[in-house]
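Progress note, sequence design subtask.
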């Protein structure tokens, strides 16, 4: 008859083949995104069902996504790309970095502007230019801080400008 192999053997061989690794990584990343979407929804609505507040669930979801994206960036992206990305996000000049007050002031302005934009997305009927909810600003800071901590080793790699 035919020479049939068990399914597990052929799947194991497919996963082990070097030419299939990019596809396997993409599929694993997509599965990770779907799992995180489910975990985020469970955290947000599960905590809301228990304590009638969305905020603790949102904090959990922000931490999960920050860890996932920070780890992905740290493992996948070249260190020069990570350094350039954070340099562009912070976007401060040498004179502003010279004083901690200048750096913190610029970062506060950028986070406030980002929080205002996110607040407008979450509440499109609200007044334009309204002061954003401080909780949104804290969640942005939490996300950026965790991602930055996970990507910190890229700043110390050899060959980083």
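Output:
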């Amino acid at each position: 008859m035919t020479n049939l192999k068990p399914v597990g053997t052929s799947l194991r061989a497919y996963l082990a083949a070097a030419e299939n690794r990019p596809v396997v990584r993409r599929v694993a990343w997509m599965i990770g995104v779907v799992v995180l979407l489910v975990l985020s929804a469970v955290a947000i609505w599960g905590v809301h069902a228990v304590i009638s507040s969305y905020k603790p669930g949102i904090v959990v979801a922000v931490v999960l996504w920050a860890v996932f994206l920070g780890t992905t960036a740290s493992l996948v992206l070249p260190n020069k790309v990570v350094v350039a990305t954070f340099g562009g996000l912070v976007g401060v000049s040498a004179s502003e970095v010279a004083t901690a007050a200048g750096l913190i002031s610029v970062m506060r302005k950028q986070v406030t502007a980002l929080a205002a934009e996110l607040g407008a997305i979450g509440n499109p009927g609200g007044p334009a230019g309204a002061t954003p909810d401080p909780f949104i600003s804290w969640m942005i800071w939490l996300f950026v801080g965790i991602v930055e901590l996970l990507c910190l080793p890229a700043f110390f790699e050899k060959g980083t400008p």
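The chain is about 75% helix and 0% strand. Work on this subtask will continue into the next period as scheduled.
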